[in-house]
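ok trying again, last paste got cut off:
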Amino acid sequence: MDQVKITLLKSTNSAKKDQVATVHALGLRKIGQCVVHKDNDAIRGMIRKVRHLVVAEPYEGGDDEAE
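nice, full thing came through this time. structure:
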């Protein structure tokens, strides 16, 4: 299955509460941290909501890192 790698690039200090909650729901806590998720509509919607804080790119790794 396709996967997406999401990296937190900017701080959530000045972000709205719902955006901070979305970043935390993605599993991101620190700037520069990366997580890998299955590429589905729910994750795409979360990325779209905080697209000014994160960068997403396709991931070609193994299935063991997907959440």
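cool. The CA atoms of residues 8 and 30 lie 7 Å apart. DSSP finds two helices and three strands in the chain.
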